[in-house]
Amino acid sequence: MDYSAEQAMELEALQAIYDDELQVYTGTTPAGWADTVGETYKITITPLEEGEELQEGSSANTELSMELLFAHTQAYPDSPPCFKLRAVYGLSDADLAACSQCLAEQVQQNLGMAMVFTLITSAKEWLRERSTQSATLDPEAAAKKAAAEDEVRRAALRAHGTTVTPETFKAWKLKFDAELAAAKARAVEAGVEDDRARRLTGKQYFLQERGDATLE
């Protein structure tokens, strides 16, 4: 295969398709791109196609965007091209890693064929799907928000005693059953039924336990 000719034809096709959107990248070459030949190119990718408008009522975040850098390698397309995604707006490092993994899978499936157009298309499809997800914080911000909310909840518990939740009720119920069984066992062993074990209802015991916990 004449790799140089294949690469030149692909670039010509990409320039015809994307026109001014496809530009020569003049920044620092990403680390690990030692086997590249020719220029490094960049293209900005957004969720919408050219001329496409967001449908009324859609919750898609069309402001999301990223930049794809790519360059041919010596034996491309029989060897993978070099590529790198960079966030332009609204994407986290985790988002870029997920999309990069998607593109890496496309590379393996398309070895031996010109594939940059496929990578651009796949990145756009990934971004479209990401843009339609309900608006959420990036994972790091979401973790911080969850931790802050948990601390507020814990502070409220310390200030007002134990809140009744399915989890706290289950824990209490296990304790209640165990102590009630132990009380009955002691009463039977002594030959006298323990009046407290016989008469105290679960509700009374639970309220008493909550009162003791609050006093503590």
UniProtKB/TrEMBL annotation:
Boundaries of every RWD domain copy: 9-130
One Gene Ontology term from the biological process aspect of the record: regulation of gene expression
Cross-referenced CDD domains: RWD_GCN2
Pfam families from the UniProt entry: RWD (PF05773)
Source species, domain of life: Eukaryota
InterPro entries in the record: GIR2-like, RWD_dom, UBQ-conjugating_enzyme/RWD
Protein's name according to its UniProt entry: RWD domain-containing protein
Organism of derivation: Haematococcus lacustris (Green alga)
